[in-house]
Design a protein that fits this description.
Largest sheet: 7 strands, parallel
Shape: globular
Number of domains: 3
CATH class of the largest domain: Alpha Beta
CATH topology of the largest domain: Rossmann fold
Strand content: 15-25%
Distance between the termini: 26 Å
CATH superfamily of the largest domain: Peptidase S8/S53 domain
Helix content: 10-25%
Number of strands: 22
Structural class: alpha/beta
Number of helices: 11
CATH architecture of the largest domain: 3-Layer(aba) Sandwich
């Protein structure tokens, strides 16, 4: 029998309720190894099987008696010792679990850059929407894959914008700004949210990070060309007018035949009106919530943009016009008020009568909530390319944060989908594989982690497990003679 993996040093935390059960420490002066003795001979023998290098109180400075009962122990083969303590000595030690080293979340160097450098002179709005959806935690798992392309159908995109340069994989038809007399730069705004250059010391961070963009303007047939070239996510921040069979069949072909996840904005109507394509069955419909202020906050006499609240303004008469579409076709929410993104310096924004000259602006609309969801989908595909559109939708909805308990959302129960997107939980779920039963010779790879429960390796089988972050084993686990079992933590693993 050959078993490889998890032999590195680690730490275990456990609680000792009875002070008489606290082991005694005898350090070997000739080495770093500790000898731990207990009044229980079996426990002393158990400790003696491991190379113990540290044993101490977890929080010795605490004034609370309960915290002083916690101890931390460091050893090699720590998972084996943790398992043995749980199985044999749970009467002496409670709350036995692995210690996780605190780690700074990955923050790109352009995260909040526009606030620091004053790029957005009109409003002091940063990237709190990325914090609300736990983007930094999701980026700890994956920062996206340049080969995962997010398609979009929209107006002009300024492809040489400093934060979009090099991120446009392909333009399928003309990209002339003059072709769109109304709101010509909407596409530039959407593109920045999808996949602006991130960690480049300028501009903004985007949820899609390393993913890239394919763009078309008005030709819906180009969406089929995108699908035929392997594009897996398409964002539609548009209103296609009343429902019709042709559009419905187009979207069915994209999702059913080409396995494309289509995400669309639910609309800005302040009503339950259906907007298409968002309200077609094959599409993930997205509406807005706030992201800046904690519920209850008043700023300059106003209550606005509260986290996870559907209304933008809550205490002024005009609040009705600042609420986006909500209906029973909505699948999920994302921040959609005061979203900082890329823009064309020729854009007329915020009521200005002349071009602003700015290249970043703050925008409202489900047009900007939808690309947040599309970007999360791209991260999910980056670690699990085999996901189906149905699986993507289920994971997004299953992992969404419940926002219906917020009093200000009470009138929208059932009209905001399953809640607000959680990028971290969605990506984690997308990259997790659960295994049980007999496993034969194979390589199993997971974009996040593997969870094994009551697993047996078949006789004369060779099993290799790879995961980006974690492999957890619970229940029974058997490897018969003649079989091999190996675990590797691979930061580039994808689910296969």
């Amino acid at each position: 029998m050959s078993i490889t993996g998890f032999s590195q040093t680690g730490q275990i935390i456990f609680k000792i309720e009875d002070a008489n059960q606290i082991p005694l420490i005898d350090k070997d002066l000739k080495s770093t190894k500790l000898k731990i003795k207990s009044t229980d001979a079996k426990l002393t023998n158990t400790f003696g099987k491991y190379n113990l290098t540290e044993f101490r109180q977890l929080y010795p400075s605490s004034k609370r008696k309960e915290l002083l009962k916690y101890y931390i122990l460091e050893t090699d083969r720590y998972k084996e010792l943790q398992k043995e303590l749980k199985e044999k000595f749970s009467d002496k030690f409670s709350k036995i679990y692995e210690f996780k080293e605190p780690k700074t979340l990955y923050i790109p160097n352009d995260y909040g850059y526009c606030i620091i450098n004053g790029c957005d002179s009109l409003r002091n709005v940063g990237l709190t929407y990325l914090e609300l959806i736990h983007a930094p935690q999701a980026w700890e798992i994956t920062q996206g894959n340049p080969n995962v392309i997010i398609g979009m159908i929209d107006n002009h995109v300024l492809v040489d914008h400093e934060d979009l340069a090099g991120k446009i994989y392909k333009v399928y038809d003309e990209n002339l700004r003059s072709s769109f007399p109304l709101n010509p730069d909407h596409g530039t705004l959407v593109a920045g949210i999808l996949a602006a250059n991130t960690n480049n010391n300028k501009g903004i961070s985007s949820i899609g990070f390393n993913c890239r963009i394919a763009k078309t303007s008005i030709n819906k047939n180009d969406l089929l060309l995108m699908a035929q070239e392997g594009i897996k996510v398409i964002n539609i921040s548009q209103d296609w007018g009343p429902a019709n069979e042709a559009d419905s069949l187009l979207l069915a072909e994209l999702t059913d035949d080409y396995k494309v996840t289509v995400v669309a904005s639910a609309g800005n109507t302040n009503s339950t009106k259906y907007t298409y394509p968002a309200s077609y069955e094959n599409v993930i419909s997205v509406t807005s919530v706030g992201h800046e202020f904690t519920c209850g906050t008043t700023c300059n006499g106003r209550q606005f943009n509260w986290k996870d609240c559907h209304k933008k303004y809550l205490n002024i008469p005009e609040n009705a016009i600042f609420t986006h579409t909500h209906n029973d076709k909505v699948d999920i929410c994302a921040p959609g008020y005061n979203i900082l993104t890329t823009c064309n310096p020729a854009t007329y924004i915020n009521g200005l009568k002349e071009p602003s000259g700015q290249i970043y602006s703050v925008e409202d609309g489900t047009s900007f909530a939808s690309p947040i969801i599309a970007g999360v989908c791209a991260l999910m595909y980056s670690i699990n390319p085999g996901l189906s559109p149905r699986e993507v939708k289920i994971i997004l909805q299953k992992t969404a944060a419940n926002i219906y308990a917020i009093p200000e959302n009470a009138e929208y129960i059932g009209l905001l989908g399953t809640g607000r997107v959680d990028a971290y939980q969605a990506v984690k779920e997308a990259g997790t594989i659960w295994l049980t039963g007999t496993q034969y010779s194979k390589i199993i790879s997971a974009g996040y982690g593997l969870n094994l429960n009551n697993v047996t390796i078949s006789k004369n089988s060779n099993v290799l497990l790879k995961a980006r972050k974690v492999v957890e084993i619970s229940g029974t686990f058997e490897v018969p003679a003649g079989s091999t079992f190996e675990i590797k933590i691979d930061p580039l693993a994808v689910t296969i």
